[in-house]
Each structure stands twice: as structure tokens, then as C-alpha cells.
Amino acid sequence: MSAPPKTFLYRYSWLTRASHWLWVLAFAVLVSSGLQIFNASPNLDASDKSDPARRVLAIGSPADGVGTTTVFGRTFTTTGLLGWTDDGMGDRGAHAFPAWLTIPGFQDLSGGRRWHFFFAWIAAFCWLAWIVSTARRGTLRQMILLPSDLPKLWPMQAYYFKLRKEPPPHGLYNPLQKAAYTTIGFIVAPLVVLTGLALSPGIDAIAAPLTAVLGGRQFARLWHFTGMLLLLGFFAIHVFQVATQNVVNQMRSMITGWYQTNET
Amino acid sequence: MSAALSGCGPVSNALVNNGAFQKLLTAAEPLNHALIGTRGLAREYRDGDVDRTFRVNGFSTPSNSRYQTLAASGFAGYRLLVDGAVERRGAFDLHALYAMPQQTQITRHDCVEGWSAIGKWSGVRLADVLDAVMPRGDARYAVFHCMDDDGQGHSYYESLDLHQARHPQALLALRLNDAPLDPDHGAPVRLRVPTQLGYKSAKWIARVELVGSFANIAAGQGGYWEDQGYEWYAGI
User: Fold this and answer.
1) Complex ipTM, two decimals?
2) Can you identify the CATH homologous superfamily of domain A8-43+108-260?
3) Do B236 and A120 touch (CB under 8 A)?
4) Is the CB of B1 inside 8 Å of chain A's CB atoms?
């Protein structure tokens, strides 16, 4: 018995694929260089000016050889992980995030800023390219969560939990995928950009309401950090899903563009 | 993720030492400058928002004998020299500066390190000083020469283009929180540029030099921190 012929769908345009992988690179650099920038002042305050009374996160080293992390007033000893960590020069020192997690891989605020701003522009162009390429192929509309999708969210989750035999009827993307793409692509990612811009004193002079609505400059720094954690969370789930569902087919389609539609 | 990133360490460290790549990264600066520029006004706060103990940014009181001597005399011998590409060189003592119209601003100081503090600053608008010396047509930048050095032969200096220098909140501050500046905060005269990061707000200013280009001053990047890799445009 011979196998049925394989059928392929050209799923991703070159622009989608290029911007996807460039975004992966940019995101890794932005996180690492962002941690470098954070290390220069390793506190996050829910306030406009710096205010220890409204400190949400503080990573520090109260004594040589000791690292601590204080979250909402509760202090944990995190020596080696946070506070007193790898300094990137063969030793340990008072560094909030360890040097192996930061770009550059040693204390260098100006270097971190250079990487961060350059790749922020790259990431912004990737986002624009993604919008343009998916809009051109007509798939952008199918990614956006609509009110009519809301009743299908739980049935889809129930299907994943094996509480339902069939997923609810849906288009190219299922309701949960649409929820994730809409939240990350159209809410979280733009907010990360806006909260980053709100840290700029030049932007603050042009668009003071932006900083004000975020709760002030230090608060914007806290939101920017939180947005990064949300993007990291999305990234973890995304990679898990790709790795556990037809990984070869998925990776091939994001590299060559071609997705096998009759894979068993 | 962490394993992947730790693998990036050697790669990123190699790129850190690659001049061409570092040059490429600086492409973001003119984009940021064009996008943000110097527009609008920094937010002004109320008296109640002021940090009574204002955090000292950058270096503390200069230890050199020139500064110590001036400070010991209550800055009686201090003159702010304004020269270079100007029609009329100026030398302003503190009486002359206090005799000019004074501006008070309660603005937030945003340090490049990430922290912010609010201070009440009073002094002379930089634009008024520039008007007094009349910059020539070839003047493009105001360079601020300071009285401190890092002990390794590098004096602090900063620069603004004339558009930034004429911003209505660009201030030659004489007072902080209703008292004359103390030595740690830049006595007797410091700059306040609330639309840019704190390193632009140079302390202990001795001389303002109007130039067409700062390429021949120190390492040529327009400021002490700029010479060490920080952006000249500090609005972000």
C-alpha cells in the first residue's frame, strides 16, 4: 500500500518568516540588554519619582557575599541567583541579574543602552512587517479575537483538556490562538513600546499624559518590566506548543513557508 | 532560554569588541533624536512633591585646590566665562547672575541609571545668557566646561546644541530647594536640562564655550560620559 501524496500549503510569506526570526533575535537581545539597564538601578517603584516607600521590587546585596530580593516588602535570600551574582569577569559581585544573563556580559550601562535602542527599532520594524505581511495575505483579520469568538474560548480549552471530542468550529486559528495573538500582538507588545517610551524625559515633555496615565516614570519602569515578563510567558507557552505539536511541520513552515496539510 | 542566552555570552562579548558592530548600534541615536528631539515642556511639580534631600548625581564635591579655594571664599572670586563664537565675551560673577531675571522650576531629574528625584531649581535661563553674549552665526553648540575631573586627567564637560540651549527650561541653576547650591549639587552654578537625562545637567560650570563643532574637545563626543560611550542625545 503506498502512502497518499503529501499536500502542502504555502502558509507563511518570506516577510512573515524573516520578521518572525529577526523578532526572536531582537527579543532575546532586548531582554538581556534590558536586564543590564535594570542592573544600574535594581529597584522598581510604583511611583513617579523614586520612592522607597512604594518599592515593589528591590534586588540588592546588603553585605559582601549575600544577595537578596525583596518583593512587596518580603525579603528572600537569593545569593548566586540575584543580588550577589556572576560579574562576568570570573568573579562574583553586587550585581542584580547575573552577568551571564545580560548583554554586554559585564557591568556596562552605556553598552546595554546601545544594544537596547538599536534592537528596539529592529523589533518595531518586525512588528510593522508582521502587520503588513499578514494583512496582505488576509490572515491578519483571522488572528483577531472577535466578540463572536468569546463563547468558543472555553469549548476550545475543554477540547485541549480532553473534556470534548471535537474543537468548536473555527477558521484558520482557533479561539485560544486568536486570544493569545490579539493580547500579545495588539495589547502587550504595543504597551511594552509605550512604557519604554514613557521612560524618556524627552517623550515625557511631549506626551506628559502618557507617563501620567502609567502612574509616573518609575511606575512606567515597573510596567515595562512587567510587560517583558508577560512576553517571556507567551514565549514559553508558544515554544512549548510548537515543540509538542508537529514540531517538524511547524518549524519547516516557519523556515520554508510550506506546511503539510495532510500530516497524520 | 537561559541556556540559550548564556551561549550568547561569548558571541555578544565578541561583538562588544567589534568596532564596526558597535558603530552600527549607534544608528539608533539619530533616529531617537529625530523622533523625540527637544519639544514641549518638562512637567512642573508642586512644592509638596520636592525631595528635600535631593540625591547627589554623578560625582561629589571636586577635591582639586582650584575648586576648594573658590568654595572657601564663598565663590567670591567666581566668574562664569562665556566665550568662543560670540560677539561679546561675558564674565559673570554671582552678583551679575543674581541680578538677571530668575526662573524657578520644580522639575524631575531622571538619571541614566534609572532613578528619579524632584527638585526646586532657581537661576538664570541659559537663553538669557546667550542673548547677552550674542552667539555668532557659526556657533552651533554650547559647551559647558566644569571644575571637576575624574582624577585621571579627564575634566567633566557637556554640550547642547543651540536649539536645546534655548529651550525655555534650560537653566543655569544657582539654587536648589530655596537655598544656594551646595558643593555636592554643583555650587555655584550648574545646568538643569529637564528634557534630557541627568548627565546633561553638568555641575560646577566654569565656562560656557560657543563652538561650531566639539570634535576637537577631549575625545570629541561632546561630553565626559559621551566620550565613554553614552549617547550625546540624552532625551531617552
Assistant:
1) 0.93
2) Transmembrane di-heme cytochromes, Chain C (1.20.950.20)
3) no
4) yes
